[in-house]
Structures are given as C-alpha cells and as structure tokens.
Amino acid sequence: MSSDKPRNRTARLTVGAASAALLVTAIAVTAQDVSAAPAPGPGFTLHTITQKVSLTDGGPADQTLSAVEYQPSHARVKGIQVMIPGVTYDHRYFDLKTNRGWISQARKAAKDGWITVAVDRLGTGGSSSPAADQLNGTTHSATIHQLIIKLRTDHRGLPVALVGHSMGSVVAIQEAASYKDVDVVVVTGFMHHTGSGQLLFNAAIHPAAEDAAFAGRAIPDGSLTTRDGMRQLLYWPFNADLSTVKADDAVKQIATPGEFTSFGDEVNDDTYGKNVNVPVLSLVGQHDGLYFDPADLNTTLKAETAAYPASPDVDVKAIPGAGHNLALQRNADSITNNINKWLSRKL
Questions:
Q1: Which of 76, 77, 166, 287 has the fewest CB atoms within 10 Å, measured from its CB?
Q2: Secondary structure tally for the chain: helices H, strands E
C-alpha cells in the first residue's frame, strides 16, 4: 500500500466518539421538488425475491435474505446491478417514496436496461434479523455471494455489477475480493480516508432500544440507529429536499457494532480493497465530510486509487452538490447516469 496516501486515523468510526454538542449544527434543508421516478409501469416491473442463506460459507441456510428485483420491460437487458445499502438503511435507500413521488436509483437503472436488485441486508427490511453480534462485513458478504449465485443461475450469461453505498460499499468490496464472482464494483459514499464529519455521524448514533421508532418492535439486543431527526447530517443541505429527508428518517433501520467495526477496518487498513481485481468506480459527494474536509478533497480523490492496487481500472469522481446520500439529493440522477454510463463502457 502506498505510504504517501493521506490518513486521518484519529477520527475512526466508533459509536459515541464525539460530544453530543457537535450536533448543534445549523443545517438548512430546502423544500424544492425532487427528481421523482415514475411508478411501476412502462419501462420496468418489480417484485420481491427471497432466498434462504447461511451466515457462513457452508453453514445452515437458516436465514432469509429479501430484495426487490426491478426488471426492464422494454429496453435491452445489459446486465445485473446488485445494490447494497449502508447502515441504518434497507433497499429503500435506492427506491424511496416521498410525498412528492419516488426518488429511485433502482427504477432509473431498470428503465435504462439493467436488472436491478436492491437488497435488504440481514437485520433490515424484509430480511431475517439474527443476533446483532452475528452481523458484520463477513456475514453480509457471504449472504450477498449466495444471492449472486442465484442471480447468475436465473439470468445466465449476464454480467454482474455490485453497487454499494457506504457500509454497503464495504460489503461490495469484501464480497468481490473474497469470492471473485462479479465483473465490476461500484463504490459510492465510501473512501479509504476520514474527515471530521465522522464525529458528527458518531454522535448521531444511539441504541435502537431507546428510539421511539422501534418501540414495541422485536429487535436484537445491541442494535443501533440514528437519533430522531438526524438524517439531515447525511445530506448536502443546500441541495436536499425536505420531503426526501423526512421520508428517509421515517424508514430508518438498525445497525450493529460489528458492521461499524468492519467499516472502520476497511477505511483505515484497506483490508479488502487491495484484493479487488475487477474494474472499480468510486463516487463520493463533493461535500461528504465523513471522508474529507473541504481543503482535502482533491488530494483524497487522487489517493483513493491506491486502495485498489489489483484492479485493472479505477475511476474516482466527486459528485457536485451532494453530501453522503448521493442517491437521495435533488441531483440524484447525476449519480445514476454516471454509474450506468460507466457500466455500459466496462461491461
């Protein structure tokens, strides 16, 4: 690993690392129209798929992995995009209904000709919720691998792209490095570097058992989630729609300490990135303070290619007008267009 790659190891992602006072930050969210995707109809169809999976390679298939599959109905099928969301999100990060309509990376990709599979990682959405201490990057990559085997069987001959976001990107990186079963990896909302925004995010996390959103619900002991109303920290506020942020907060999910540990290991040590041997596209919001402070943007972007030394082709780009949640900003189409055009060139 290149020794000149900038690091900020003092801001490791550890829950509760920052004072709650850091949350007192003025964040303005504009109430403007989102770029809403159409309802199911011309262009694609959708249905939920479920699969029995095991937490470990060769273990009992006693868990259920759920995902929503979006099938192009008119365009020529180009391949498969398996979309993996980050912590405290399920598949709705890629397909969110707001009171202004849909904001959906998954639907747009399907209309562009991609079979899109938006996953509920174990512990979220319609998937099983095993004990919190069983969920980490290794178990998630194992279950995604099992899903890919099924998809390659159901759609023989089609190339497969992993499209991750945040912790989902860590899972995509680990899966590709461990199983060598995909053709390309798209990393969004993740870099091998940290910025001071990590501290704000850490302070926004608390035990899910203390959150009114999960009152009366059976959740594994040790589960975590974002504090009420703190989702705005994940947006560039001057290009975010209030209806989107509210819809996002209303469907928040749980996370586990093991997921945060896996995330931190990859950020700081390139644990799996160095073994990814397929083309990589890495997209990050220009204002994503989780990974860099404003003055460090260009240096961090240039250094990120060193995290994938085995990849034959690494493209790293910043998306203007976006924070961490690139697919949910008002210019969400820009990330989908970047991904789809890049995939069309590589596959």
A1: 76
A2: 8, 12
